Batch of 2 targets.
Target 1
Amino acid sequence: MSARNIARFWEWGRKIICVGRNYADHAIELKNAIPSEPVLFLKPPSAYVREGSPILLPFYTSNLHHEVELGVVIGKGGTAIPQSSAMEHVAGYVLCLDMTARDIQDECKSKGLPWTLAKAFNTSCPISDFIPKEKIPNPGSINLWLKVNDIVKQNGSTSQMIFSIPYLINYISEIISLEEGDLILTGTPKGVSSVQEQDELQAGIDGIVTMTFKVDRKS
Ligand SMILES: O=C([O-])CC(=O)C(=O)O
Ligand SMILES: [Mg+2]
């Protein structure tokens, strides 16, 4: 068997830990309070989808939203990783979409139910190619953008994150041990909006990566 390659981490079946409300402008647009501690939820590895395959609309939603996010790929696992050494545990990055059934999430929020149906369905985590750590020397100050059918919807800097990447690695690993091949989604800036069948989503990190996904319905 060939050696495992971190550049194909999504094939390893490791966990996806998502941070919500990590940009004040997005918390405000959805009328949520600005959090004093990170909001966490999970997606299963079956949520991954790669360019060339479509994002599939779940049958039970009529309001699927895009959320463009920086993903942090863990290269070295650990528990209670100190902030001071947190970046040593990072192998690289991916650009991610945290696809969200917003109508279902609103319903779950009002009923006090978990967000699983809103966030964890098949193809809810489109990702770009793996970006080695050296290509993004300062992940706390890069620009993420997303267009729907060529119209810019999201454009924000990771400098607006409430909780930094080292803070998140420390916070998460105190609660959930991190393993090689895990992915952390760091939250979305403002501009989330609804997508329809046949829409084309294009997203990028300035100067580093772009990716394109089509929205489709399961045939
Ligand atoms: O669904 C939400 O608004 C929470 C979230 O994932 C984010 O802020 O990125
Ligand atoms: Mg999100």
Target 2
Amino acid sequence: MDGFLLSRADRTVHATGTRRFFDDVPSASQALRRGEATLVVGALPFSPHRPVVLAQPEEVDVTDGPWQGPEDPGELPAVRISAEVPLPRVHVERVRRLVDRLSFGETKKVVAARRVVLEADEPLDPLALAARMIERHPDAATFALDLSAAGERFWGHSLVGASPELLVSRRGSTVTCRPLAGTAARRADPEEDRRAGEELLASAKNLAEHGYVVDWIRSRLAPLCSELDVPGTPELVATPDVWHLASPITGTLRDGIDALTLAWTLHPTPALAGTPREAALDLISRFEEDRRFFGGTVGWCDAEGDGDWIVAIRCAELSSDCRRAVAWAGGGIVADSDPVAELDETTAKLRTLLGALGVETAPDAG
Ligand SMILES: C=C(O[C@@H]1C=C(C(=O)O)C=C[C@H]1O)C(=O)O
């Protein structure tokens, strides 16, 4: 696909064509500051050491409300799972090993992720998939963008997803974050569903997982803000597939740090990495293959420094022929995690993407 789409309930940024690519965050931020670019769109990968996708687009369309895609996006092609990496039982084993490490080491939390490889009968149009995701997940931030600028491994690839998690947003001197961490699958029965949410809100394990993320964001934002409002306890939010613990954080920025630099400062949070962050990133690099743009961040930043950056989860990377897709899901592991429940949590999270493609996932073992 050409360009970049970020559709949220209140606003859509749709950009096409490229005037200029940037190699890193400081050069993009500098071009905005100097007035050489009015808007930068793109994505940062999960690993802070890998190439970014940051571009000044040729044309930009900013509209109120969610993206109004094509009148009739048509049917999506039939899609099936061709591989799971690692196999579900190997993911369970991995989590078991991580739990052992967490019980004895200095690391308190690490996020373990797995991938599902999908094959489509016909090419899967990234924008048609995005339109379907907007329909199914009206409260999420739906994105679709070309990843070619990240190098040969990504030529012609695109990333499509519907994320419930805001990494950071800036409007003038106001900075907002809404980290999510702590998850429970939704239930078909309304009473069981309500109970699953309440149990999540009272779960010491999930509150601890969540607390690490909030502490990280507080520690990164505090030096940049004259005021910072961090709720003492998280609230419950729902997607059609899962419950999450969420903390709406608001601050007043001291100086003109732009939204892109804020994203770079915060990313990846312990919601996707773990705590302490460097030790968790090291463990992830030893236990998993490169996450590419899964767990990264997707967004835009304008010349005033305003912008929105969304955590790239509930997403898939589409190959250049659009017949293959890789979807990821992960979850925070702490010393008292149950490995089978952690597998189920990733399955519930995968439903956001797989459900939009009409692919069935295994029912919850819980
Ligand atoms: C890693 C994912 O989600 C993240 C991990 C969560 C958790 O561990 O509870 C919750 C929301 C996200 O921050 C994912 O969706 O793949």
